[in-house]
Automatic annotation (TrEMBL), chains A, B:
Annotated ranges, domain CSC1/OSCA1-like cytosolic: 196-358
InterPro entries assigned: Csc1-like, CSC1/OSCA1-like_7TM, CSC1/OSCA1-like_cyt, CSC1/OSCA1-like_N
PANTHER family in alphabetical order: PROBABLE MEMBRANE PROTEIN DUF221-RELATED (PTHR13018), TO DEHYDRATION PROTEIN, PUTATIVE, EXPRESSED-RELATED (PTHR13018:SF98)
The name this protein goes by in its record: Hyperosmolality-gated Ca2+ permeable channel 1.4
Segments crossing the lipid bilayer: 12-30, 105-128, 154-173, 371-390, 423-442, 463-482, 570-600, 622-641
Lineage, broadest ranks: Eukaryota, Viridiplantae, Streptophyta, Embryophyta, Tracheophyta
Localisation: Membrane
Keyword line: Ion channel, Ion transport, Membrane, Transmembrane, Transmembrane helix, Transport
Domain of life: Eukaryota
Residue span, CSC1/OSCA1-like 7TM region domain: 369-641
Pfam families associated with the record: PHM7_cyt, RSN1_7TM, RSN1_TM
Domain CSC1/OSCA1-like N-terminal transmembrane: 7-175
């Protein structure tokens, strides 16, 4: 048990650590070489060009910039909320509000608790006399444990529990109302986007002698005659996507070798085809990759042909578009078919939010998947120690020596051996915790959610259960989750709050240290971005071959909501549980919230680039988790007081959870529809405004390709990009063009002259271009012939007149 | 503890009792005097006229009819399901299916259980050796208790648990699918009715300077421009309804005295105005009532004027009608407003299903009401013994003697005293159980549901909790619910299934007796209709003055779903719990289901007249209660086996509840939407068919008065009836009319001549008629002036040209 002094030392070390991190950050962030690690969002938003701040120089030599190590703070705070929403989207802005909500809740609570409860607790002064068998620290003098059992002082704690609960609920209500308003406002002021007019229809029944698109068309023409516009079939393009990815990789290598050759025209790059270039036939790299790409192109073309023509490649899912937001809102919120497992309609997620792989799961399979995954999550939360213990028992030194006898001499070295013996057992656990979010994400994917945002929300909720049981309860009851489960079954329910209640004040110092190590240091690590920094520079050294690669190596990612939300919710839980019990913990939480707020504000402005925009769809979850924390805090207090011989507390405390539950239900019915449904009033208003401002808008063409599988889009973009690159290259290599003698139209013709070869590449690209166009033209005609009524589903080059 | 012989005796007595009841019924039902008690539905359906089977004779003298005492059975079975739906509605037909479902589930289960489990249990033969301290009956030799602990025979019980669960789930699935289909078919083949086009809108916001109807009109014209037709405001007519009721009562008395006077023209009826005609001024009854009626008429008129003109009488609720089922389905299923607590839309219940008093409850109040009522139900279920014990402690003999000393001589008589002492303590409990359904119904009303059908469903679910805790658990654990609750908190959760599991086989004989007494005798009582029989004849003797009164005294009522569903569900629970444990209980349940099926089929055909039609909306509840019963049976078996040292059973049994829960979730998502939503496909199809068959239908006039407060309808009917009566009387009293000399047009003019007076009544009535018409005309014009656009809300005499 830590005394106040121990805690002070720990705090000092952690503050020092955070300070060092901040200093490091201050130094690293102004190095131009790190610019893409610390400001990727600005690059993406186009606010910073590739040659910003003399990117040619790798190191910043301007000394005076080194002294302003907190200079990022004002910059982070300067942006208003509106600008922030504009810059990074509503998700990010609302994510930040979780931190301010924490501050809003806990600052007044802390002030009241420190002013009222600490004096009460300190003057209690009976703890040491009464229980000599338990070790108590100085912290306990400030906590509720210091009050003598049966004392009337507990009335003050009870009162405070009421005050804190009401205050929290009040703030929660305010915040829910604000966020709901922000969401509606955001949706209302959003520019026209495809998802406003689109509904995703799943489980389309197969009608024999009809194609899926015909079935959909007929169904919606019949049941939504006034507003139905069109539909976009979903193709099972997974194999196609794989091929395109493969081609991309090859193209990259080709680019690399061509650049290399350009720099050293005296030597054509060669290599071996076998594994990692170690074995196999020696070939000319440029020729080799070109040949492989052309071969892939043919396969891609035939695969695309298959996808477009094989009725089996069309999935029983469709994106149905309407001519007004009203029509889409109606279709998304109503039941279509007599059989409620068919024609399931829902709002289409944003195109970039769609998780394409899950679209085709049938209803029955979905219900089984959900069931199995919920069992799996339960098992994971409560029994995750079993496989880890198993791995640990395998992964001992003897096992390793048996499997890999050649390592024996190394292992037998004494230092290595002791290190490994200390390290190995923990390794499995560390590894497990590291991959846990990924595992949970995979589980959510198996469950069959069709949008990335819902996948992240589901992952967050699974992770929360894990943290709640294994971090919070696990630390308090000090046992594995499995032991907790066992005691839950074999102890009377009235015993459980007592067990928790008694242990809670004793674990206060542990959680203070936890907040410092996990919270403070975690945030400092967050701003320093150690992992992305290292990865970026590693990539830069080994993998990056072209400017495009560098851009890709930048990869700012989104805020990892799946991990961050649960840990934030854990801090709320700690704050609420300890507010009455050991109020001295609150300052630690407040420091965390304030610091994290600053850091995340900076990161959101400069680093993260949200993959999708869900318009704060995660807020109801945050809200209900905080409510759950309130309830847990009531149960704890209940158990604690019942061991403190404060019998009168039972009837007084019972109303608190009841009122909280009622409050939650009220909020749910009051605000949650704003996050699940789209009011017709809103839709109609927006339709009307749009109609007034753009009466001649052709929605059909606007929506035509919105929900194309991204892989087709990507392909299209690449084509365009290639075109652009070619033009640039032509400008650059004009002098080379003069030397160009032969003009070849045959694609597979052998070329030996380097210049001609280089030039040939342009040609081939152009030919590709032509070929593509020709092919599209053909396919379009074909599609047209297949179904006269339905519009062509794929238009690859909107700019090109067919 | 009962032996098999005891049980046999009990069964014999009960069967004899039922037989006697059936004989009595056979005798009573063919007495013409009881015709209106046993065949009211036929009167209402118009299949039987008032003078059926020589109703003039009170007693049936045709002896041969007495010998066919089961002759009602074929009649009850003859009707096909389609005819039944046509005759009594879908609710009744589906209600009967619950009984057949019981038979379908339990007949095969019984056969298998008797063939497999009984031999296994009997040959176990170890019970009496092992536990000598517990009293066991012969029944236990047939039950699972007879198998020696740790025996491998429990595998057979486990297997049977799986088989029974799968069979039950299979039947449940079949039945849910059937009922859902029947519901959709019923709705699809239903004739055009107002509720198909109407949506109830609650929580309409008050807009200053707009009347509610204008607000509604504007809102729906804006947001549903293509389908909105009109709206019907809801008036707070509670006071008006009271006045009308009062007038009705007075009118009845007037009729009575006039008839009396007609029969004995020599003596004008007189009486006193004070309490019960004992004191007060002596008056001429006909004059007195006539004066009071005319006074009431003025008050009614002014009240109606107030209701129609006072904007405060218009409630923030409206019935909004659409020009198509599609439009109504869309509006009912979507969210209208940005504020999810305003403009709440839902399907309008049938006009006769509306519970008018609850329409105006605002959203916030609703959420508080629900919360308070759920606490109250919890308290009622677990603590209902407390007030009863309190009443019991008050209602002792000393208390009565103190309050009413004049009863002392009577009470002190020894026989009376001992009777009272034995009777009084139970009285409070009996009284409580008698009024319990009413109390629960009042609670549901306070909760704020707006349709009678949902009120009944809510009552049923409350009653089910009460029965589950106080009848099922209460009998098994043998303690008050409060004690159960206490042990639930202070025993480990793993102990609870054990406690129940151990007690379950021991209570088998109790439940067999319960099934006979409550089930068999209850059903026999149901067919005999003792209470309605007595009440009808009492009314006939004392209250009935006119034919209209007799019709009203008939009052067949609806099936009391609020009480019947929970007790049926209790039988399912008993059957499922005991199927594996003590299969000998199953025949009792099967007899109950078969007998009850016959009786209710007869009653539904001949007696009950459903007040509303909810199209089997109660089925999802029945389904989930049976699922809950399955789960309870698993828990019981789990606890039982864990005390039987059958440790291997734990992992084998755990899948059963999990699979059941999954099955429930699947069924819920598969079928429940059919009971909650109206698919657009269906709506569109019906719209289209109707449009094809009746292209020139004027829906607006059809829907104009559909959702008028019933009190206005009633009034209108009365007016028409009065008109009819007057015409008849004029015919009858033509010879009297000859004597009529003076013709009076003043309404309040004093008249002394009986004949003239009698005749005057006709005049006044006609004048009323005229007055009303005039008044309506006036009001209509006024309403018209108030809002030019909105159509007049009240048209009282559609037949009269204004």
């Amino acid at each position: 048990m830590a005394t106040l002094q121990d805690l002070g030392v720990s705090a000092f070390i952690n503050i020092l650590g955070a300070f060092v991190f901040l200093l490091l950050f201050a130094v690293l962030r102004i190095q131009p070489i790190n610019d893409r690690v610390y400001f990727p969002k600005l690059y993406i938003a186009g606010k910073r060009a590739a040659d910003h701040r003399g990117a040619r120089r790798a190191i910043n030599l301007n000394l005076c910039t080194y002294f302003k190590f907190l200079s990022w703070v004002p910059g982070a705070l300067r942006m208003t909320q509106t600008e922030l929403i504009h810059h990074a989207g509503l998700d990010s802005a609302v994510y930040l509000r979780i931190y301010t909500l924490g501050l809003k809740i806990f600052l007044p609570v802390m002030v009241v608790a420190l002013l009222v409860l600490i004096p009460v607790n300190v003057s209690g002064g009976t703890l040491l006399n009464l229980r000599k068998d338990v070790m108590f620290s100085d912290i306990d003098k400030l906590s509720i444990s210091n009050v003598s059992p049966g004392s009337n002082r507990f009335f003050i704690h009870l009162l405070m529990a009421y005050v804190f609960t009401f205050w929290t609920c009040f703030m929660l209500y305010q915040e829910y109302s604000n966020v709901a308003f922000m969401r509606l406002h955001f949706l209302a002021s959003q520019k026209r986007c495809a998802d406003q007019f689109t509904v995703i229809v799943r489980n389309i029944p197969r009608v024999s002698s009809h194609s899926t698109s015909e079935t959909v068309d007929e169904f919606f023409r019949r049941n939504h005659p006034d507003h139905y516009l069109g539909q976009q079939s979903v193709y099972n393009a997974n194999r196609y996507a794989k091929l395109v990815k493969q081609k991309e990789r090859l193209q990259n290598w080709l680019d690399y070798y061509q650049l290399k050759f350009e720099r050293h025209p005296e030597k054509r790059p060669t290599g071996r085809t076998g594994c990692f270039g170690f074995c196999g036939r020696k070939v000319d790299q440029i020729d080799y990759y070109r040949a492989r790409i052309s071969e892939l192109d043919k396969r891609i073309a035939s695969e695309r042909h298959r996808v477009l023509n094989d009725p089996k490649a069309v999935m029983p899912v469709s994106f149905v578009t309407f001519d007004s937001r009203w029509g889409a809102a109606v279709c998304a919120q109503t039941q279509q078919s007599k059989n409620p497992t068919q024609w399931l309609t829902n709002w289409a997620p944003e195109p970039r939010d769609v998780y394409w792989q899950n679209l085709a799961i049938p209803f029955f399979s979905l219900s089984i998947r959900k069931f199995l995954i919920s069992i799996a999550v339960f098992a994971l939360v409560f029994f995750y120690m079993i496989p880890i213990a198993f791995v640990q028992s395998l992964a001992n030194l003897e096992g390793i020596e048996r499997v890999a006898p050649f390592l024996r001499p190394v292992i037998e070295v004494k230092v290595v051996k002791s290190f490994l013996q200390g390290f190995l057992p923990g390794l499995a656990l560390k590894l497990f915790l590291y991959i846990l979010p990924t595992v949970l994400m995979i589980m959510s994917k198996v469950e069959g959610y069709v949008s990335l945002s819902s996948l992240e929300r589901r992952t967050a909720s699974k992770y929360y259960y894990f943290m709640l049981v294994n971090v919070f309860l696990g630390s308090i009851i000090a046992g594995t989750a499995f032991e907790q489960l066992d005691s839950f079954f074999h102890d009377p329910p009235s015993q459980i709050p007592r067990t928790i209640g008694v242990a809670v004040p004793m674990k206060a110092t542990f959680f203070m240290t936890y907040i410092m190590v996990d919270g403070w240091a975690g945030i400092a690590n967050e701003i320093l971005r150690v992992k992305p920094l290292v990865i970026y520079h590693l990539k830069n050294m080994f993998i990056v071959k072209t400017e495009r690669d560098r851009e890709r190596a930048m990869d700012p990612r989104s805020i990892a909501l799946g991990e961050n939300l649960p840990s934030l919710q854990l801090y709320f839980l700690l704050g609420l549980v300890y507010a009455v019990v050991t109020p001295i913990l609150l300052p630690f939480i407040i420091v965390f919230f304030a610091f994290a707020y600053l850091v995340y504000r900076h990161q959101i402005i400069n680093v993260y680039n949200q993959e999708y925009e869900s318009a704060a769809a995660f807020w109801p979850q945050v809200h209900s988790r905080i409510i759950a924390s309130l309830l847990i805090s009531h149960v704890t207090l209940f158990g604690l007081l019942s061991t403190m011989k404060a019998a009168y507390s039972t009837p007084l405390l019972i109303f608190l959870p009841l009122l909280t539950i009622w409050f939650h239900k009220y909020c749910k019915s009051r605000f949650e529809p704003a996050f699940r449904k789209y009011p017709l009033e809103e839709a109609m208003e927006k339709d009307r405004m749009e109609h007034a401002s753009e009466p001649s808008l052709n929605l059909k063409t606007y929506l035509a390709n919105a929900y194309l599988h991204p892989i087709f889009h990507m392909f299209e973009q690449e084509d365009q990009k290639e075109e652009a690159t070619i033009e640039v290259r032509i400008d650059k290599s004009e002098h080379q063009q003069q030397q160009h003698v032969r003009s070849s139209h045959s694609q597979y013709e052998e070329e030996t002259s380097a210049q001609t070869h280089y030039h040939h590449e342009e040609r081939t690209s152009s030919q590709y271009q032509y070929q593509y166009q020709h092919q599209y033209q053909y396919q379009l005609e074909e599609t047209h012939m297949r179904s006269e009524q339905s519009p062509p589903h794929f238009v690859y080059h909107p700019g090109v007149d067919h």
